[in-house]
């Protein structure tokens, strides 16, 4: 019988900063701050997971383009 080991098929991380800084104080009360979701795996599997999140949590998945200048 072949060995059955757990393997990771998709990885995701919710990230967010919720501080009481000046930016949050000037936002309208109707504004919703949502966390950033980072993921790592194939595009096909990520599309499936993304559709599931969008259907079940009324959210949006999309690419976040960050320039090297912004990262510095």
Main β-sheet, spatial strand arrangement:
1-2
Strand content: 5-15%
**Secondary-structure-derived class:** alpha+beta
Order of H and E elements? EHEHH
Low-confidence stretches: none
Mean pLDDT across all amino acids: 77
* Termini separation: 52 Å
Query: In one word, what is the shape?
Result: extended
Radius of gyration: 17 Å
Count of alpha/pi helices: 3
Count of individual beta strands: 2
Key traits:
single chain, 72 residues, alpha+beta, two-stranded antiparallel sheet, 3 helices, 2 strands
Describe the structure.
This protein is of the alpha+beta class and 72 residues long. The model has no long low-confidence stretch (mean pLDDT 77). A two-stranded antiparallel sheet has the order 1-2. The chain starts with 10 loop residues before the first strand and ends with a helix. The chain is extended. It has 3 helices and 2 strands, in the order βαβαα. 33% of the residues lie in helices and 14% in strands.
Describe how the helices and strands are arranged:
Layout lengths: L10 E5 L6 H5 L9 E5 L2 H15 L10 H4 L1
Antiparallel strand pairs: 1-2
Short précis:
This protein is an alpha+beta fold and 72 residues long.
């Amino acid at each position: 019988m072949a060995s059955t080991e757990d393997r990771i098929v998709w990885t995701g991380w919710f990230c967010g900063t919720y501080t009481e800084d000046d930016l949050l104080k000037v936002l309208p009360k109707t504004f919703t701050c949502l966390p950033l979701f980072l993921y790592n795996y194939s595009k096909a599997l990520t599309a499936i997971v993304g559709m599931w999140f969008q259907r079940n949590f009324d959210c949006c998945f999309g690419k976040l383009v960050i320039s090297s200048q912004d990262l510095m």
